[in-house]
Structures are given as structure tokens and as C-alpha cells.
Design brief:
This protein is an alpha+beta fold. 33% of the residues lie in helices and 22% in strands. The chain has helices at residues 11-20, 83-91, 131-136, 142-149, 165-173, 175-190, 199-202, 204-213, 216-226, 248-255, 300-307, 312-319, 363-366, 401-416, 441-453, 470-494; strands at 2-7, 46-52, 63-66, 69-72, 78-79, 98-100, 109-112, 115-118, 123-124, 127-128, 240-243, 261-265, 269-274, 279-283, 288-291, 293-296, 323-334, 346-348, 357-361, 375-382, 424-435, 458-460. The structure holds flavin-adenine dinucleotide (FAD). Flavin-adenine dinucleotide (FAD) binds next to helix 1, strand 2, strand 17, strand 21 and helix 16.
Length: 497
């Protein structure tokens, strides 16, 4: 009998636990007195323990359902294009509960100088893919548009090697397009600083397009010619999906499918050390668990603390992944208190506008069932990566929850004319939540992988490594689970029955 310990019960750890669960179906119904409620574990089966320091599962995924409102504290949608978000929802029987964003009003705005401009339609993977909307938009100046067109003529960069996202987009399409359009879109994903983010680790397909086609416009034209027709009869999914009563439905469904997994909430792992055989996982309450394999589904800095004694070099590489703190503040109003129509999904605010807020989502338009009839729900996203210029400035997140609420009310007053107090508000703080794939990220991953290879049975998963979105985290958790199973199979071959 082998034991796998998963540390961290966010979506990555849950996806790993789901893949490894000895009895993945829902736990059996209660049995008559005297019959043990746990199914007996057969010889050769594995024991799976999930350790989570918080009192709930889900990590960054948290949904508050209150007075008819569905309020997401962390993520609010996932990308349908990446297979494992949709795939896992199907496996969990949640397909009928999936919703795309509102089809009737598909508009998003971008702020420029206190004014909201419509985001030009047809952005594919951050890059404009339709000429008409780009030509018409007032967001980009005529010289900025001309500069964009130069992409058609500029040859690909001959030197290989990592480049920042901002440098790449600036080089191909011009800095104005980057500052006014790409930067705020990217900010909504990473809360990052595009001058520090690695293109190779965040949008490698852009450099590939440049290499394959000679430029982004040429690549976009070629992909239009090649686009396959949708399969007749196949369900067409919106680009972004969510669940009827929030993304927590995925967490709840997963939690109900962990038959045979020993889930320990409110237990913090403090150290993982080598043992003979395998490893020991020490918990804050003094308990020690023996493990044949360990999956670290924790933020990179937390994993670094756990392995600091076992492998100081791995800890250094893990600590090299920086994190940004963020917060979301949701506010609800009677529609009569919102002077401006919520005629879109909301607006994004470029860094150049010097506002503490990155984006305001008009949640009740984006997902109409998220607020009761007659109410508007708005969510503001606060917190950005520091730049060289801002690194010594005070962060808006230093303030109290009331300060954050005041900040959001001020933003909504200036931009949307809302002066009434909200009838309901929720503040969610996310300290060190968004890993930054900065220049050199792929080298850091290689260093981490190299150190992991020196410790058979240790695996990592989660948003710190190869994708920050929910589908990527699911993929990473499932991949770590598969690697752990393969490893345990090889162990079983070596140990006589
Ligand atoms: C505000 C916000 C908005 C976002 N929006 C989107 C979105 O719309 N779409 C999208 O796809 N993604 C979005 N993301 C990103 C996505 O939500 C995260 O990348 C993803 O949920 C991270 O999952 P994870 O399992 O890797 O990590 P986490 O969710 O961080 O889980 C790690 C878990 O490990 C636990 N832990 C840490 N240390 C220990 C320890 N020592 N012992 C035991 N347990 C420990 C933590 O308590 C936590 O539960 C957003 C993120 C934030 C913060």
C-alpha cells in the first residue's frame, strides 16, 4: 500500500486528488450501524491524503451567494479553448450548468483620459485580427494605426532568446497599441508589468507567428484562410465559460467526488523531508505523515518553504518566481442608482491612466443571472505589478477594506457617475496571488525540473509554472497525478508483493 500526499487544495490540488482518488465516484451512502463507512482499501491500492491550510477547499476560487447575488471573489470565468476546464466540467456532470458570457451585449470598454472607448472587435490571443474595427476605433491615434500597419513590412527578429511582452508588441505593432490596448488586456490576466513579463512564457504563439509568417498581420491573414468550419451539430461554446451559481460549483463537485481521499482542512504543511523510504510531511500541529510521493499544489514561495531543508537550490529557484497581490471589490446597486447603462461587460484601465484600479466588470450584464432583477452588480479589480517607477510607492492594498471600498466608489463616481452607497459590498483580498512569468521564467522552470528529478516522488502543480488560468491549473494537477501514478507503479515493480 502506497501513500500520496497532496499539499494544497486549490483547483490544481483538487484536480490531482480527483485523478488519484481510490474511489472517484461519490462516497457510498450511509451504511447500517456497525458497517464501516470507509470502503476497505485493498492491498496494492493507494492512500491519498490532501492537506489544505485553509478551512475550505478551492484556493483562489471562491463564490459568495448572497441575497440572490452570485459574487465571485477570485476568478469569474475560464477559457473554453483550453481543453481541461470544459473537459473536467463534463466529467463532473456540470455540462448543463455551463454558461457563456452574455451573447446579447458583447461590448467591453477601454478607458482613455476619463472616457470609455469600445474595445475593437476581433482580438484574437491579445492581437487585433480584424482591420475594420481597428481602423474605426478612436482609442488609437492615426499615427498609432499607421505604425500598427508597419508590422506587415517589418522582418522577424533574427536573434532568438527571451523578450518582454511589451518589447515584442512595441517592436511589431508600436508602443501606442501596446499601452492603450494590449497592456490593459494583459493586466486583466496577470496583473503584470508587460515590460517584465516573458513573451516565451506568456504568449509564445506570438513569436511563433512572427517566425512562421514573417509578422503578426501576415499570420492573422494566413490563419483566417485556414480556419476550419465548425463541425455541424457540435455544440459551439462561448470563449469564456462559467457555472450557473459560480465557479465554486466545480470545487463543490470535485469535493463530492474524492471518494477515499483523506481530506484534511485547516492543516498547514511546514516541511517535507527525505525518509527511508520516501518522504515525511510535517504539519503545523506536530503530526508527521509518511509519503511515497508528494504533490506540491501550493504557490511557489510556499513550496520553497516546504523544501528549504530538503533542497535549498530548488527553494531558490522557486522563490525566483515573483507574485503580485490583488483584491476584488464587488458592489451592488439598484439600477436606478446607476446613471450610466451597464451596456457591456465593463471596462479595463491601462496602466498609463495612473489609476489604482485595473478593471471594472459589469457582472450583472456579463452574466445576467448573477444579480436579482432591478439590480446591477459591479466588480473592481485592484493591484498591479510594480514597475521601476512605482516600486517605492504605497500600494492601494495597504489600506483597510473600507479604504478599498472608498477607492472603488470614487472610481465609479468619476467614470460612471454613481454617487449612491452600494446596497451590498464584498471585499476579497488576494495577497501574493498572481505569479509573474517574468523574463527568465522558462530557465527557472528548467532549474526546478532539474532539482525535482533529483528527488523521485516529488511533483509540483499549480499556477506558478505553465499557465495561470483555471484550465492550465487543472492540466498541471492532473499531469502531476499521472506522474505520481507512474512513479508508484515503478516502485511497486521493485517491491516484492
Ligand atoms: C482575483 C483573481 C481573479 C482571477 N481570475 C481568473 C479568471 O477569470 N479565469 C481564470 O482562469 N483564472 C483566473 N485567476 C487565476 C486562477 O484563479 C488561479 O491561477 C488558480 O485558481 C490557482 O489555482 P492553484 O490550485 O494553482 O492555487 P491556489 O488556488 O492558490 O491553491 C493553493 C492552495 O494551497 C494552500 N496552501 C498554501 N500553502 C499551504 C501549506 N503550507 N499547507 C497546506 N496548504 C497550503 C492554499 O491555502 C491554497 O488553497 C484569477 C486569480 C485571482 C486571484
Amino acid at each position: 500500500m502506497t501513500r500520496i500526499v497532496i499539499i494544497g487544495g486549490g483547483i490544481a490540488g483538487l484536480a490531482a486528488a480527483h485523478r488519484l482518488a481510490p474511489h472517484p465516484r461519490p462516497s457510498p451512502p450511509a451504511r447500517p450501524p456497525g458497517v464501516p463507512t470507509e470502503l476497505p482499501v485493498r492491498r496494492g491500492e493507494r492512500e491519498v491524503v490532501l492537506i489544505e491550510s485553509d478551512s475550505r477547499l478551492g484556493g483562489k476560487i471562491v463564490t459568495d451567494r448572497v441575497d440572490g447575488f452570485v459574487i465571485e471573489g477570485g476568478p469569474d470565468t475560464f477559457l473554453s479553448l483550453k481543453p481541461r476546464g470544459l473537459g473536467l466540467c463534463r466529467e463532473l456532470g456540470l455540462e448543463d450548468r455551463l454558461h457563456g458570457t452574455n451573447e446579447k451585449i458583447r461590448r467591453t470598454y477601454v478607458m482613455r483620459g476619463n472616457k470609455l472607448y469600445e474595445l475593437p472587435e476581433g482580438l484574437t490571443g491579445l492581437i487585433p485580427s480584424r482591420f475594420g474595427p481597428m481602423a474605426k476605433t478612436g482609442l488609437i491615434s492615426p499615427p498609432g494605426k499607421l505604425r500598427m500597419g508597419l508590422d506587415y513590412l517589418i522582418p522577424p527578429r533574427s536573434v532568438n532568446g527571451d523578450e518582454s511582452l511589451a518589447a515584442f508588441v512595441g517592436r511589431r505593432l508600436g508602443r501606442e497599441l501596446y499601452d492603450r490596448l494590449i497592456e490593459p488586456l494583459m493586466g486583466g490576466i496577470y496583473a503584470g508589468d508587460g515590460d517584465q513579463l516573458s513573451l516565451a512564457a506568456t504568449f509564445p504563439q506570438l513569436r511563433q507567428t512572427e517566425l512562421d509568417h514573417g509578422g503578426l498581420i501576415k499570420g492573422m491573414l494566413a490563419s483566417k484562410r485556414k480556419a476550419p468550419a465548425p463541425r455541424p451539430g457540435a455544440r459551439q461554446w462561448a470563449a469564456f465559460l462559467t457555472l450557473t451559481t459560480g465557479l465554486a460549483e466545480i470545487v463543490e463537485a470535485l469535493a463530492g467526488r474524492l471518494g477515499g481521499v483523506d481530506v484534511r482542512l485547516g492543516r498547514q504543511a511546514t516541511r517535507v523531508e527525505p525518509a527511508s523510504p520516501g518522504y515525511t510531511v510535517q504539519l503545523e500541529n506536530g503530526e508527521t505523515l509518511a509519503a511515497d510521493a508528494v504533490i506540491f499544489a501550493t504557490p511557489a514561495f510556499a513550496t520553497a518553504d516546504l523544501v528549504a531543508d530538503l533542497d535549498p537550490d530548488m527553494a531558490v529557484a522557486l522563490r525566483g518566481i515573483p507574485y503580485v497581490s490583488t483584491a476584488t471589490v464587488s458592489v451592488a446597486y439598484p439600477l436606478a442608482d446607476i446613471p450610466r447603462p451597464l451596456d457591456g461587460y465593463g471596462y479595463i484601465i491601462p496602466r498609463a491612466e495612473n489609476r489604482p484600479i485595473l478593471a471594472c466588470t459589469w457582472t450583472s450584464t456579463k452574466f445576467p443571472h448573477r444579480a436579482p432583477e432591478g439590480f446591477g452588480l459591479i466588480r473592481a479589480f485592484i493591484g498591479r505589478a510594480e514597475t521601476v517607477e512605482t516600486q517605492h510607492a504605497a500600494s492601494p492594498l495597504d489600506g483597510t477594506d473600507d479604504d478599498l471600498l472608498a477607492l472603488v466608489r470614487d472610481e465609479l463616481r468619476r467614470t460612471m457617475g454613481i454617487t449612491a452607497p452600494p446596497v451590498l459590498h464584498r471585499v476579497f483580498r488576494w495577497p501574493k496571488a498572481m505569479p509573474q512569468y517574468t523574463l527568465g521564467h522558462l530557465d527557472r522552470l528548467a532549474a526546478i525540473d532539474k532539482r525535482l528529478a533529483a528527488h523521485p516522488g516529488l511533483f509540483v502543480a499549480g499556477n506558478a509554472y505553465r499557465g495561470i488560468g483555471i484550465p492550465d491549473c487543472i492540466t498541471s494537477g492532473e499531469a502531476a497525478a499521472n506522474q505520481a501514478l507512474t512513479y508508484l507503479d515503478t516502485l511497486a515493480e521493485r517491491i516484492p508483493a
